[in-house]
Amino acid sequence: MLPGLRPDLVVYEQYELGAAVAAHAAGIPAVCHSLSPRPPDELIRMYAGERLDRLWAEHDMSAFSLDVLTGDAFVDIFPNVLQQPSFLDHPARLRLRPIPFTEPGVTVPTWVGRSGRPLVYLTLGTVVASDEVLVPAIHGLATLDADVLVALGSADGATLGELPPNVRVKAFVDQAAVLCRADLAVHHGGSGTVLGALASGTPQLLLPKGADQFQNADAMAAAGLAAVLEPSETTVSAVAAEATASIGRLSPAAAAVRDELLAMPGPSEVLEQLIARFEDDEKTAAA
Q: What is the pTM assigned to this prediction?
């Protein structure tokens, strides 16, 4: 398919490593778009090494002919403090300001901001969220003198039980707009919510549940960017205590990261960089 289409570039998301192999085999530059901080090589070898070896063999190519974790260029939406230190000066790395995605038709509830009380936003995302894991977070946050907005995501909502009067639930919301108004974001540690809250300067309490969320949570805690409660620690009282300590308090480290993210190049600027980089490569190859 790729040899017939002959696109100028193949842009693949960070964990779609087969696309990088296929592009490289077709002689087309492969550009990796980050979804997480770049994982250690040994982690990918552990979980995907055999499958990658088979892909390279199918294309009759060496696995060392392209670093699929980096690609020919790596579009990095993460702040320096969350990225691997050894990767910060990599020549393939291009910085890109993270742009939040909003589902068409979702909105900010009309009641937000009307009570004069702080706003706490709670979501566990669209993969690991369930009523069971939301319940202790909801009741812990309800102890605060604040309005609590819960976005269900993949949770059903039918078994949450009777909700405290300061808690309201929606299936989905305009998360980017909510984060700009929230005094605290309590969430699962998914990369999109982490970056959205960092860019909006919203204090964070992370409740990681799976996927890359534990990696993100560890990095955020180590950098002083968020409080974290592991699954075994996520009780009503612990959520209440951590939320009380975090609400409305943006750490100096988080403020610095917000400024860094907002100063990063936007999509049109990065597109120009990619075009210039690979046009120059084609000219060099032709010469």
A: 0.90
